[in-house]
User: Which sequence fits this backbone?
């Protein structure tokens, strides 16, 4: 089981987690913008959002880097956002998490293959 590691923007490499939470900007389908704090433990789908919102089930949310303001949406998998997960100085994995509200899926892409984490 992977423990807690550092999460970075794939564009500017800024560290996006602090105190066990990944903090990202969000943009909803209706254009509303906000900030989400997601638990940095894989498979834990607790989050808080400022301002408080109830995402509609199935809504596709844009996730945006708080440092460079670039979209974190994956080019290869349009329903997923991508971050870099730094394991140590040399090892960096890609992590993909669902952009669809209510779909709790995360994929960790390692040299050994793909691990998936699904929420309840
Ligand atoms: Zn960035």
Assistant:
């Amino acid at each position: 089981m992977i423990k807690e590691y550092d999460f970075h923007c794939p564009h500017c490499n800024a560290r996006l987690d602090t105190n066990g939470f990944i903090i990202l900007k969000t943009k909803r389908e209706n254009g509303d913008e906000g900030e989400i704090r997601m638990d940095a433990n894989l498979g834990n789908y607790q989050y808080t959002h400022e301002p408080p919102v109830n995402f509609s089930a199935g809504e596709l949310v844009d996730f945006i880097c708080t440092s460079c303001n670039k979209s974190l949406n994956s080019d290869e998998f349009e329903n997923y956002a991508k971050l870099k997960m730094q394991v140590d100085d040399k090892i960096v994995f890609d992590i993909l998490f669902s952009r669809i509200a209510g779909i709790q899926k995360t994929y960790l892409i390692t040299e050994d293959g793909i691990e998936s984490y699904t929420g309840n």
